[in-house]
Specification:
single chain, Rossmann fold, 26 strands, 960 residues, six-stranded mixed β-sheet
């Protein structure tokens, strides 16, 4: 195994590209080389960089001015490599393991097309098996009853925690103590059930690792993988976990030429089961075999002063054995353009009495001043970053920057899944799945119901809150019914329906929230789409879990400003100016509830008395990782590094103690300035008595100007306008058939109220049905994300069939309707019922042809489903005219209705607007007719009534 140490900024990716080019030049086909790295993004970047390198060699004969030069006769090999690049394997560690497993899946007992589960879903499935086990073991006759009693709720939580750490060891070994044995029995039973549930058709990351190790136990499979990929290049090897490390070590034993590159100084993912000991084993083996490559030491990231400080830091820490040893910390030198930049390092210590919390506020103010000074010297705020150990510390800096009007943005922040808009989505979905469940109260107080505290107090204490809600607040109760339909959709579709459907007062959740809220909802949709759960319960459990986690990040906000990052969030980034805040931060030594020894798999539970040696070992590992975190944070800076810390008379703590007592104990290196400042006095605010009235300035002439609201929305359809008029009538206490005084208010409910004598069709709800179900007129009324009601489906299908001139007796034509998207949510039997009703309405339409309506052959010009887009005033009227045709020189507009009752006055406004639009286009006014398909009635309203409807509503006034 060949091993190379690459410090931060020394061109690790560039070295990998050069290695690829060397292999191609030596005649190795790209399809025989596997490139493996830590994340998909980095893998994609590596693929792009290799492609650029191949292109550069083909064009110029060399890469990066001679870093690699093509040998004699090797040029055709790069042409072949260019063709092979699309099929080359450059992927993540799990991606490489999966590729190997698929090569021999049947031999290993797996379906070659097995699905991949994200880790969060695997955790949810395991916890579900734990809960199920808890139920069945309540039976005293169950063989695990005694273990379940001993484990209790705490033991179940420990078992779930061990599931998260299963990549630390291939097999977990539990001790003989009563609690450890009980938790081991429950964990083993739940894990076996979890594996049976996955079967051979699905694998989660932890199971991919175990399957990959089992794969290498089979000689024929191991040899097949070695022949397929005889060379494997692994990036970021310091971040692999013990199971991944064992896999690569076994692969090297099988004869694969393994080349790994990494930086032990940047191994900071212990909380994800990464173990720097894996890299160190490789380093030891390479030293023994003579395969240790020269380290990369030319930093093209850091200015000279930053390089000198980092060399002093790594040299002092390595010599003291803090975080890494000297062989892992070779000195580096500035190279490239940065070799000409001197740079600067400032270590600022706030030294004073009092509480550290007060000193940190002073420290944040000092840091803000330093960033202001760097900005005045020419560095954009967007090229600066503040790095701290925790989000809470970043909040102190954020407030100090705000006080000085310095723009900032939190690239990682807590609370995304606790944001109001995200919890509103969660509670809406939870109520849809379980109306009387724990989310009902939060839902009723939220934007979809908006009940006040007094109203809530009248509903929730009742024996049947939903019955009281239906009686006292029918609209929120109807919304719950609509959410019940959403809960039966696929999880992603359910979320889209909740946020995009105007469930309350005609306003969607997306319209209610601010720009940041919309960003958060979009991020939630992208997150779910990238890892879609199999059902809604899993999604809700996931949202609940993430809401409880402190590391669930907020969405990046747009714009420029100083970036505020945690150390883990800063990994892989670089900025011209980096400030490391609160180096005096102290770390608590709380015991770990459950530990797994990577070497033996031995489990230690603190609640069972624990293994103090295991706790000490883990604390020691965390202490050493802390020094590596310091290196990662400091190595983000290109030109200027600022380190701040606070200390009291008792002395410095944390990283600050290390810097003052170990790194800077002698004179600081050139370019590093150590400054001690006194704390700033706490700000006290007083209200001064005004000296006297200030003279009033004259008001600007535009301050009293009033912008009158427009009568209609910017984009509106005629059929939606009908709904707005009906809603406005209901608000004024008028019947929907009465004329409405003035234009409707925008944003009102676009769904017409059902009359008492007009029953709903089977499967409809008050929020999903309209009186006419004329969806073909108005694509705004809902959309494909909504689960359509029966009336809406009938309207859509009938309008389509009529536009195609289909007949009711052509079964092949009617069967084609099953392909319409509105039919997808319905079962086969329900689709049969819908098609039968469509056929009945088609028959009614055909019976009208040649009698009340001109026959199709008698029409001189006949056009169906004509799109309408008519600008008028501040509104664009958009919709679809069902039929426009000419007979004997006269034009007709037919508007098809599927209503059960004939009430033409409802559609005077809609039909009048259609006629007005056609008149503007053709220069002649057509006759307008309402065609009621159920009753076979054709009504031609008086044209004066249609014009009056437009004038009374303000439509004509806005379109003159």
């Amino acid at each position: 195994m060949r091993v190379r140490v690459a410090s931060a900024g020394t061109g690790k990716t560039t070295s990998l590209v050069a290695r690829y080019l060397t292999l191609v030049g030596e005649g190795v086909p790209l399809r025989r080389v596997a490139g493996v790295t830590f994340t998909r993004d980095v893998a994609d970047e590596l693929r792009q960089r290799v492609a650029q390198g191949i292109h550069e060699v083909r064009a110029h004969g060399s890469y990066l001015g001679g870093l690699y030069s093509v040998g004699r006769g090797a040029a055709p090999r790069f042409e072949s490599a260019s063709r092979e690049l699309g099929g080359a394997l450059l992927t993540t560690i799990h991606g490489f393991m999966i590729a190997g497993i698929r090569l021999s899946a049947p031999l290993l007992g797996y379906d070659p097309g097995f699905a991949l589960l994200p880790e969060w879903e695997a955790r949810a499935l395991f916890e579900e098996e734990l809960r199920s086990l808890g139920l069945v073991t309540a039976d005293p006759d169950h063989p695990l009853h005694a273990a379940a009693v001993v484990a209790g709720e705490e033991g179940m939580a420990l078992a779930a925690m061990l599931f998260d750490n299963r990549s630390l060891a291939r097999d977990l070994v539990f001790g003989d103590a009563e609690l450890e044995a009980a938790v081991g029995a429950m964990y083993g039973a739940a894990y076996d059930s979890y594996l049976r549930r996955l079967g051979s058709v699905a694998l989660a990351p932890g199971e991919v690792e175990r399957a990959a190790l089992r794969m290498l136990d089979v000689a024929t499979v191991r040899e097949r993988l070695a022949r397929r990929y005889p060379i494997v290049l692994v990036d970021e090897y310091q971040d692999v976990n013990p199971l991944q490390g064992a896999f690569f070590e076994r692969l090297a034993e099988a004869g694969v030429a393994l080349e790994v590159v990494g930086d032990p100084k940047q191994s900071i993912y212990g909380f994800r089961s990464a173990d720097v000991a894996v890299f160190r084993r490789a380093l030891d083996a390479a030293e023994r075999s003579g395969e240790l490559l020269e380290p990369l030491t030319a930093s093209r990231r850091h200015a000279r002063a930053v390089v000198r400080f980092l060399n002093r830091l790594t040299g002092a820490l390595g010599a003291a054995g803090l975080g890494f040893d000297p062989r892992e910390a070779p000195p580096v030198e500035a190279a490239g353009a940065q070799a000409a930049v001197e740079g600067r390092v400032d270590v600022v210590v706030v030294d004073g009495h009092g509480r550290l919390a007060d000193l940190r506020r002073s420290e944040a103010e000092v840091l803000a001043e330093r960033l202001e000074a760097a900005h005045a010297a020419g560095t954009d705020y967007s090229d600066m970053a503040v790095v701290a150990r925790t989000h809470a510390l970043l909040s102190l800096v954020e407030r100090a920057l705000e006080a000085r009007d310095v723009p900032s943005m939190r690239l990682k922040g807590t609370g995304f899944y606790w944001r109001n808009e995200i919890r509103d989505v969660y509670h809406a979905l939870r109520v849809g799945a379980d109306p009387a469940g724990s989310s009902l109260t939060a839902f009723l107080r939220g934007p979809f119901a908006s009940l006040g505290l007094a109203q809530l107090a009248a509903v929730m204490p009742a024996d049947d809150p939903l019955a009281v809600l239906a009686a006292e607040h029918p609209r929120p109760h109807a919304v719950i019914g609509e959410l019940g339909r959403f809960a039966r959709l696929a999880p992603l579709d359910a979320v889209k329906a909740v946020v995009r459907t105007p469930l309350a007062s005609g306003v969607t959740l997306m319209d209610r929230v601010d720009e940041r809220g919309r960003d958060n909802i979009d991020a939630l949709l992208f997150e779910i789409a990238s890892q879609p759960p199999s059902d809604l319960d899993l999604l809700l459990d996931r949202l609940d879990e993430l809401a409880k986690r402190a590391d669930a990040a907020d969405v990046p906000s747009g714009g420029d400003g100083v970036r505020l990052l945690t150390v883990h969030g800063s990994k892989g980034l670089e900025f011209r100016v980096v400030a490391l805040f609160d180096t005096g931060f102290g770390v608590r030594d709380d015991p770990y509830p459950a530990l797994v020894d990577p070497a033996t798999g031995r489990v230690s539970l603190n609640a069972a008395g624990g293994d103090e040696a295991a706790q000490r070992d883990r604390r020691e590992r965390d202490r050493h990782e802390s020094y590596r975190l310091l290196y990662v944070a400091a190595s983000r800076a290109r030109d200027q590094l600022i380190l701040t810390g606070s200390k009291t008379p008792s002395g410095p703590r944390g990283w600050l103690a290390t810097l003052l007592d170990t790194v800077l104990v002698d004179d600081p290196p050139d370019g590093t300035v150590l400054t001690t400042v006194a704390p700033r006095p706490l700000r006290r605010f007083t209200i001064a008595r005004p000296a006297g009235p200030e003279p009033r300035l004259p008001s600007a002439p535009w301050t009293l100007h009033r912008f009158e609201p427009e009568p209609f929305e910017p984009l509106l359809s005629p059929s939606r306008l009908v709904g707005l008029q009906a809603a406005a009538a209901a608000e004024r206490g008028q019947e929907p058939t009465e004329p409405v005084d003035g234009p409707p208010r925008t944003g009102a409910d676009d769904l017409l109220p059902l009359e008492a004598d007009e029953p709903m069709a089977l499967g409809e709800s008050p929020l999903s049905s309209t009186l006419e179900a004329d969806w073909g007129d108005d694509q705004q009324a809902g959309g494909l994300d909504d689960l359509p009601g029966r009336g809406r489906v009938i309207g859509t299908l009938v309008h389509y069939a009529i536009s195609q001139d289909w007949t009711a007796d052509d079964e092949e034509q009617l069967e084609t309707l099953r392909a319409q998207e509105v039919m997808f949510p319905y079962s086969g039997a329900q689709q049969d019922d819908l098609i039968a009703e469509v056929a009945e309405l088609l028959g009614g339409y055909r019976a009208l042809l040649g009698r009340e309506l001109a026959g199709l052959d008698d029409r001189d010009d006949d056009r169906a489903e004509i799109p309408l887009a008519m600008p008028g005033g501040s509104t664009v009227w958009e919709g679809v005219i069902d039929r426009l045709y000419r007979v004997d020189g006269r034009w007709y507009v037919d508007d098809y209705k599927t209503d059960r009752l004939v009430r033409p006055e409802r559609y005077h406004l809609q039909l009048g607007l259609y006629l007005h639009a056609v008149e503007q286009a053709l220069g002649t006014r057509p006759a307008g007719r309402l065609v009621y398909l159920r009753s076979g009635t054709v009504v031609e309203p008086d044209d004066a009534d249609l014009r009056a409807a437009l004038q009374s509503s303000g439509v004509l006034a806005s379109n003159r």
